[in-house]
Design a protein that fits this description.
alpha/beta, 2-enoyl-CoA Hydratase, Chain A, domain 1, Aminopeptidase, 3 domains, 8-stranded mixed sheet
Length: about 500
Amino acid sequence: MKKNVKRGVIVLLICIVVLIGVIYFFPQVLYNSALGQKAILTFSGEKVATFYFKEDQTKMDTLYMKGIIYRNTHNDIQKVLNENPQVTTIAMIDVGGSIDDEINLIASQEIRKRKINTYLPKNAMVASGGTDMFLAGTKRKIHPTAKLGVHSWSDGTKGGNEYPQDHPDHIKYLEYYSEMQIPLKFYWYTLNAASAEDIHWMTPSEIKQYKIETNKASELLSLQKKMSSDEFLGRRTGNNLKTQDLIKSYFKEIGLRQFKNAYSSQFSFIEEQTKKQRTGTNIMGYVKGKKHEAKYLVIGAHYDHLGVVNDTIYNGADDNASGTAALLVLAKYFVKHQPEHSIIFVAFDAEELGLFGSKSFVQEPPVPLTDIKLNINFDMISRNPLNEIYVVGTYDYPQFKPLIQSVAKPSSLKVSYGHDNPDDTTKDYWMLSSDNGPFHKKGIPNITFSEEDHPGYHHPTDDFENIHPVFYKNVVTLIQKVIEKVDQQFPDNDLKLKK
């Protein structure tokens, strides 16, 4: 009997030890294995991260991603990228976070090591560890409708913001953000933006402040470079469908609104030189204003150029791929930062043949001309060795000059005014020489940004390699700030004009 009791006690002790082992070790095995993490996510209604291509993809350079980052994500990324070396971008659709922070950082470092770009497409939702992975992109872009979320981490007992800044648990994150060239203040911001149980969706200003997207200017330059490459054959009216497709695709991607369910607006005209009827195509869309929805600013630039002349391509990098690229990035900016007035963005065709695109626009406008409060035009804004940009139109419309001067004052540019007084014989008269001209003839206030002619003007040497990038970026920044200033503090258009 005593032996049975002793044996029972031993069995009981073994069971207790096994139970303690199971209680202690099983959660660790569960949380630290791919199978266990997958089971946890499945039980909570989530799915592990998967990488895939869309069925209708024709160009397999974009890899799509959905789900929660887990133990196998690093291996999954390595495998799919090894099998598909043509991939340049990971589009993150719905990545709510990570169940394994250590693996997440390793997988993210793999993305950066391979120089892969990251992108948040339309209506994407990425948060927490997903945000950390997004930051690994060499180039990072966010669609205006996408959401990016941050919050504090937690070790189960305390949140990251409850530990002192010199605590060793902060180090791995600080080292990661430093490696990704993200301001370290972003890390401390995430800890206080929301608790581990909550999510803070970043605002456009916060995304800009912490450099979450890569430099907009690089997009500006890449667009100009692309449109002025030999591939686009000089963008001559009638032979510029590739440029039209680029502009329309960009407008669609950023979510610009359409008139009559289309971005394209065709028009016919008689070419002055040949006396033959031709067809051109304006590309336009708009952003709805939040305060003055029925009052419009028209922001325009012509996208056509001279094409191929005697077997030589006239690429027109400055004239006017510079204005067209600026038009696109400004449209993107104002989609994200809704203006007070509605803004129409229009890429004019057939400017080089006689301003026929802008003439067509004012003859058959998409909105009543009386509702157009101002036209802002830019034509040749990326090449000037003197760092000088002209603001044209304040002679006739002086009510805008104080606003422009207030914005221009802190700029490093030399901002000059002129080319708008018909009695000034020292300067060419530009009020009728670009797409602002038809607006001017209709009595619509207009301001043009342009530079003096240079040796490449209407020559084959107007190539991207000859522009002045810093000057160009600064001009586009100036234009953006002028549009914002005018939009927010629109002057009295009834002010007596100089004539």
